[in-house]
Amino acid sequence: MILMNNGIHDDAFDDIRPALAADVARVKAVTDAAYHHYIERIGLVPAPMEADHAANVAAGLVFVTGEPVVGVLVLVPEADHLFLDSIAVHPDARGSGLGKRLLHFVEEHARRLGLAEVRLYTNAKMWENRRMYPRYGYEVVERRVDGPYDRFHYRKVLSPPSRPSSSAAQLSDH
């Protein structure tokens, strides 16, 4: 077990896996449960609830965790960054640290793909997210209206993956 530069062990992501066709119904259920409470606040259905989950799973863009699934990521690799299209944690798993672990997985996944930046956006009325992302090192790039959605766009420039030193390798065996 090697401690990564974000303080998370490399094997901490062993239970996060690419979604399968059999997961589509649960991906939709978790996404809907995670975003449903925003409908009244923003006055429309959040975009992740209207996504084509089956197509995203088939394209290999969705990662899940839990049995049954309680965490969902939709990750879109671009030429120069990894786009975090959606992150959803079932309300039953809130407060468990799962969201933090999923965000760390996104960063490690970007590094594995050779991408040095993660980008995402969140609705302007999702205040919780707007407070949370800066705590994890994301900076606001711009605020932009996309159709009916008023969104804050964020990015995080990633540090390169840490290379274990000989002393770190020795510590990892204990």
Which short descriptors sum up this protein?
single chain, 174 residues, alpha+beta, seven-stranded mixed β-sheet, 7 strands, 26% strand, disordered N terminus, disordered C terminus
Question: Could you characterize the architecture of this molecule?
Answer:
The protein is an alpha+beta fold and 174 residues long. It has six helices and seven strands, in the order E-H-H-H-E-E-E-H-E-H-E-E-H.
Please specify the SSE layout and strand pairing.
Elements: E1 17-18, H1 24-35, H2 38-42, H3 53-58, E2 62-65, E3 71-77, E4 82-89, H4 98-112, E5 117-123, H5 127-135, E6 139-146, E7 149-157, H6 166-172
Parallel strand pairs: 4-5
Antiparallel strand pairs: 1-2, 2-3, 3-4, 5-7, 6-7
Number of strands: 7
User: Biggest sheet, open or closed, and with what strands and sense?
Assistant: 7 strands, mixed
Strand content: 25-35%
Shape: globular
Residue runs with pLDDT of under 50 for 5 or more positions: 1-9, 165-174
**Whole-number radius of gyration?**
17 Å
Strand order of the largest sheet: 1-2-3-4-5-7-6
Distance between the termini: 9 Å
- Alpha plus pi helix count: 6
Mean pLDDT: 89
User: Which structural class do the helices and strands define?
Assistant: alpha+beta
H-E string: EHHHEEEHEHEEH
- Residue share in helix: 25-40%
